Amino acid sequence: MSERNLRLIDEVFEQFNRTGQPPTKSMHPEIEWAPVRDDPDFEVRHGPDAVHRYLAGWGEAFDELRAERLETIASGDKVLVWFRLTGRGRGSDLPIEMEQGVVYRFKDGKIASGNEFTDRVEAHRAAGLGE
Fold this sequence. Notes:
By secondary structure, the chain is α+β, with helices and mostly antiparallel strands. The chain is 30% helix and 44% strand. Strands 2-1-6-5-4-3 form a six-stranded mixed sheet, sandwiched between helices. The longest helix has 18 residues.
């Protein structure tokens, strides 16, 4: 199970880096996505269309957007990916560089949820990797 989940995450990051778009086909029909809690526009997205719009918004807001994986750990039905986002603001050309993580949960071979974190310790806990 974990190996298949890791391959799916590879595909997700490859497509996002190539196109700026997440692959909807990798999303479970009942997917839920929770952005970072302190995001001023925090809202849990439900369903592939809503999650796709949210994630694609990143690719639309920035040129040369890249997500460089720094850590990928499988834990049961979850995968934690900690990554660095870099790019340039579309229209402003201002550089962006930030690190964050997503804890993915899987169901029926697809991504069933994603929870974003800016605190690495919290991300590890959410993935069931201890304190």
